[in-house]
Amino acid sequence: MPRGAAADRRREVSLTPPAPIGRIAILGGGTAGWMAAAMLARVLEKRAPSITLVESEQIGTVGVGEATIPPIRSFNSLLGIDEDDFVRQTKATFKLGIEFRNWGAPGHRYIHPFGKYGITIDRVAFHHHWLRARAAGDVTPLHEFSLSACAAYQNRFIRPVADPRLILSSLSYAFHFDAGLYAAYLRRYACARGVERVEGRVLDVELRGEDGFIRALRIEGDRRVEADLFIDCSGFAGLLIEKALHTGYDDWTHWLPCDRAVAVPSESVTPLTPYTRSTAHAAGWQWRIPLQHRIGNGHVYCSQFISDDQAAATLMANLDGKALAEPRFLGFTTGRRRKFWSRNCVALGLSAGFLEPLESTSIHLIQSGLTQLAACFPDSSFDPIDSAEYNRLQLEEFDRVRDFIILHYKMNTRDDAPLWRQCRDMEIPATLDYRMKLFASSGRVQCEDRELFAESNWLSVMLGQGIVPRRHDPLADHIAIEETRRRLAELKMLIHGTVEAMPGHAEFIAAIVAQRTS
Ligand SMILES: Cc1cc2nc3c(=O)[nH]c(=O)nc-3n(C[C@H](O)[C@H](O)[C@H](O)COP(=O)(O)OP(=O)(O)OC[C@H]3O[C@@H](n4cnc5c(N)ncnc54)[C@H](O)[C@@H]3O)c2cc1C
User: Fold this and answer.
1) CB within 8 A of 109, min separation 6: which ones?
2) Is the CB of residue 261 less than 8 Å from the CB of residue 332?
3) Secondary structure (3-state) at 251
4) Opening angle at CA 395, ends 253 and 409, nearest 5
5) From the alpha carbon of 236, which atom of ligand 1 is closest?
């Protein structure tokens, strides 16, 4: 072959793109597994890889995880899900925020609402005007300027509008849903789009000798599932990412010492509250998640300070309605894998790591992992830059959520139990320390563009947990204080008037449920 022709041939070879991923195997059929199956079936429908999900009914799922945050709506809309149908089928309710009780001194409460506070006045963030009015003697709490918070406390709900000139655009919401019904809903969605479900226990994992990539899952009954890409959704077991690939785990119990939870459903009570509640107890905290047909409750606690029996007794003594089952215990270690994507395996859900559900972030982290995986989706060459970028972004996301959760513990003002004193005295990550100090000094909230929690989220919790800034933005002083007061009073009236005109939360859901039967 002439030399020029050889060069052309080489160029031709290098221009031939590597083959696309043809086979994907997902291990696990909990929330993570079915979210992955649904999303990949949807996003990759044009490339049409085969997607197989392996799960074992005998092992079962963790069966908790029922409170979400607003980005779940983007996930639903990406899947093209009709929201009313989703609400009916998962027995969902709407969620406008999280109320924190007893995280300060016993009796203290605050709300972390979704959506924005107030309005920007003269290009200065609303909370600086509020801080200024506060310094001048106005005692109106910040949540009175959040439409979501005011609607939540009045047990009312309506969907927001898009027009930014209207106060109704400042409301934001998520859902509470039944975890079992949610997984079943996504399973129907995924299977209708060609995902194959294999029932059976994975007994062994075959690795390729040459590069340590996963070749196949060996399943009881002498079956085998081969694939190019594996998604580990096997829950706390971390069967692929850890047991097969030995990726390593960063343990965060020195920051987040709670290591057990006990969960129990209880009968519904009225009113149907459109928010999650988190109540701090002596050795942990209790969640309350209202659904259409029951309330989900659980006590997350630190086994160093309380026994299982005492934890269950505390939970049972603090239910609003009659318990509907026996309490169920779960153990965990807060932390995360050192990598979420290793070789040809991506871990999602509990196999990737665990952060306690104080801010309902786990389901979001699954969604965020899937969105990022779609953006970095590999071909058969598995270019290491794709996994490096995925790991960089997802580790960063996990670490920021960790900081947000630690903030609640660090800034508690309880003096009645060793857990709270220990948390107040602990050293915290430098990234969180910086944010807290900046806010305490100037009321500024450090937030990067890509962060899950925005200014209003950090603000709610930093103020709620008792950090009061020493100063506000001096630009807020450019308006006469009387004018600031007048605008705040007007805004408060507008919010209260808007809430009064909203339907009740229970009424809003009843109308959605009735659509099916009418
Ligand atoms: C106490 C608690 C409260 C929580 N509350 C919230 C909340 O309010 N909001 C939120 O966003 N998140 C919450 N979470 C997290 C949430 O529950 C999980 O992120 C979510 O359920 C995903 O779980 P998973 O699918 O990763 O694991 P799992 O539900 O455990 O599913 C694992 C799957 O892997 C399968 N499997 C395992 N081993 C094998 C094997 N050898 N062979 C075959 N199949 C196997 C199992 O059968 C199962 O199908 C909470 C978690 C806990 C522990």
Assistant:
1) 99, 100, 101, 102
2) yes
3) strand
4) 35
5) 30
Residues 6+ apart with CB under 8 A from 371: none
Q: Which pairing describes strands 229-232 and 23-27: parallel, antiparallel, or unpaired?
A: parallel
C-alpha 106 chain-centroid distance: 27
Hey, which of 234, 276, 355 would you mutate to test ligand 1's pocket, going by the most ligand atoms within 8 Å of its Cβ?
Answer: 234
CA of 61 to the centre of ligand 1 (A): 6
* Ligand 1 centroid, distance to 324 Cα (angstroms): 22
Contact 414, 243 (CB under 8 A): no
* Nearest atom (ligand 1) to Cα of 361: 11
Whole-angstrom Cα distance, residue 204 to residue 244? Answer: 9
The reply to whether 95 belongs to the active site is: yes
The catalytic residue among 46, 91, 95, 322 is 95
Closest by Cα among 382, 435, 378 to 407: 435
Q: Print pLDDT tens along the chain (518 aa).
A: 444 555 455 555 566 889 999 999 999 999 999 999 999 999 998 888 999 999 999 999 998 989 999 999 999 999 999 999 999 999 999 999 999 999 988 889 999 999 999 887 888 999 999 999 999 999 999 999 999 999 999 999 999 999 988 999 999 999 999 999 999 999 999 999 999 999 999 999 999 999 999 999 999 999 999 999 999 999 999 999 999 999 999 999 999 999 999 999 999 999 999 999 999 999 999 999 999 999 999 999 999 999 999 999 999 999 999 999 999 999 999 999 999 999 999 999 999 999 999 999 999 999 999 999 999 999 999 999 999 999 999 999 999 999 999 999 999 989 889 999 999 999 999 999 999 999 999 999 988 878 899 899 999 999 999 999 999 999 999 999 999 999 999 999 999 999 999 999 999 999 999 997 55
Per DSSP, what are the bridge partners of residue 216?
206, 226
Say how many Å lie between the CA of residue 393 and the centre of ligand 1: 22
* Closest ligand 1 atom to Cα of 202: 42
Ligand 1 surroundings by CB, under 6 angstroms: 28-33, 54-56, 59-62, 64-68, 201-202, 233-235, 237, 239, 261, 298, 330, 332, 349-351, 357, 360, 362-363
Q: How far is CA 117 from CA 162, 425, 449, 450, in A?
A: 16, 31, 19, 20
